[in-house]
Design brief:
single chain, alpha+beta, two-stranded antiparallel ribbon, elongated
Length: about 80
Amino acid sequence: MALHYKEADEYEELIEKTVVHFGDIPDRVIDEYVKSGEPLKKAGSYGIGEFGAVFVSGIEGCMPNVVGLPLHRLHQALLAKNIL
């Protein structure tokens, strides 16, 4: 994530690593999932908040990062700059 602190004219780049583990998925289940059209609408071909979540066996790291924004990391960065 890249942050621009306008008043200080500073930029900060932060990286948040999250690993998503998938269980074994039978081919017939994958075929049905693809036919449903759901994976065609998602980055990574699954939605953690939708049916695709049944394939996830575990997550290492920040769950909100999987959805799209590492909220805890953002909050900590803003606190460090006394913005919050």
